[in-house]
Records
---
Amino acid sequence: EHAGRAEILLIGADHVTAHEPQTGRELWRYGYATEKSTRWRLIPSVVTGAGLIFGVQPRGENQLFALKSGGSGTLSKEHVAWTFGGPTPDVCTPLYYRGNLYVLDGVERRAVVTCFEPQTGRVKWQGKIGGNPPWRASLTAADGKIYCINEDAQAIVLAASDDELKVLSRTDMQDGPVHASIAIADGHL
């Protein structure tokens, strides 16, 4: 919701679009792709917070971007608040939690979490969480903690911290392969 107007946000291989919930009418679009690629696929959803919209470009582009909310018609580069050139996720949706933006790049040999100041894109901290890739489940959060799990069912709990990457626990769930994020409801995981 922005300025009292509800918007449904969608991201595709080369555009983010906002739609009116009642009719589906397109309110605005932003094209972030400068050229096309047959390798493109896009899995992460957009996330909102701090008056911004956060999205990840398709695989191979390694770009996280933040758009200013609102607008109409075709948005220009002037609507981009900031960009970050990597590491960025191939599959995981970013997480906005307690005033921070967290991003997990968990493919290949990496398992890197980056914590951003959402308004500016400044990296507050970045670190490797270890474990066996791939990490394709999106980060989830509750009770001041961030939860992540890899395909081998290794679950890691991080502190939702402004200052540093702090691993609170590691657990081998011994029930792989895992292809879903950790769900949180009514005080339970």
---
Amino acid sequence: MTILIFGRDGQLGSCLVNKLNQEKINYVAFSKKEVDITNNDLVKFIIKKNKPTTVINAAAYTLVKESENNKKKAFDVNQYGVKNIAVACKNADCNLIHISTDYVFDGTSCKPYTPEMNTNPINVYGKSKLKGEHELIKHGGKFIILRTSWVFSEYGKNFVKTMIQIANKKRNINVVNDQTGTPTYAGDISEVILNLNTKFDDDKVQEIYHYAGSPLCTWYDFAKTLFQILLEKKLISKMPILIPTPSSDYYDGLKRPTYSALCSKKYIQEFKVCETDWRDSLKNITVKL
């Protein structure tokens, strides 16, 4: 078995590489600088040359705010890049696991989103990611779409690192308290991906799964927990003053789902695993930040 990863330099890609090394699974991985997934000929060449059993697409244009002003880039990567990979995988008869997002939903639900619920993205990033899913469903062979949310890790740029950087500069920190979601550690997603890969024993797999951490919380709750952990571990000397703030105070013209919690029940029941608590993952990675 050989796994091929697109997007190895992101949070998930980095954790995936660590997981595959630990499990001693054969893989090849490419950063976005090495392989631009919008280059159809290059994508076909890479897949044909490496002959992977499974391709994991962790590559995406994830700059949510910038997507509003750079629609072409967002759709080139998140829609047409996915189409390139889907067609190449189908032609090469290899499996494809594609990573998607909670932003394909509009945030009007009052309960965590299941894979079967209607999608209705409200910003360019979400729309481009949903179009990528549609391209995969239309052109793909054996595939799994994995939607996740509020990803954090010891790698790359994320909310956890941003909060720590802000705390190093000022005492009072305003944090949004009216957006609710499910934080998810990229390392936990890596394990889920390896479990999902076993699904391809069935030659007709075309599935959508959700996977996210538990429990749901607001960004304010997330930040408060982070700093409590840092204080307990004596990684900071004093707790910053967190000020719960409505998202309207930060309005920048971008619509964001106010509720984007994902329900992982389908995955948990099918693979007979327990929910992962993002607070435990946060405790484990704080020493690495």
---
Amino acid sequence: NYPFRKFKIQKTEVKTREHSLTIEQLRLFINHKPSRDRERMARDMFLLMFYLIGINTKDLYFLSKPDKNGRVNYSRAKTGRKYSVKLEPEALNIIKNYKCEDRLLNISDWYKSHLDWQKYINIELKEIGKAITLELQKKDPKADFPENVSTNWARHTWATIARNYCRIDKDNVALCLGHEDSDNRVTDIYIRYDYSIIDESNRKVLDLLIK
């Protein structure tokens, strides 16, 4: 007769600390000229994560080739939620340099696990941050660039630009990120996913970068 056996207390949601690039900082990152192959790989992978709406390193490492419609489909390792993202030209320009026979990228040919790969990316991202800061300070000694950039910044940066710069409403940002709204969990069962909303939102974010 214990009444609380099936009762669960919902976890308190705490806002994570800010770790996203501004649109101006992201443009500086895109235009940075790597001096080493591993540095170039880290820059490319961060941008690819951004172009794929914040995919994480584990999912990207194991990602299969696109389907006949030019979409990558996967279940997110962290949540099990299904994703389908259209490969935009910006993403394809990176992917063509990392061709693989059985996966989207050939990263597994060089790194034995996604954790090793992620570690090296994050090391190089910090070096890129330092290099960009040095370049900026040639014109303005007080200028700086975040030097603690890591792979998870790609997801936060996409979401921040989508909401604050493109004015995409929060529900659509959440849809693109694959977040589950606890208030609408039952309603979501009855709604078929409209991937065109995700595609249009991502295209709007990417178009902003080239303005």
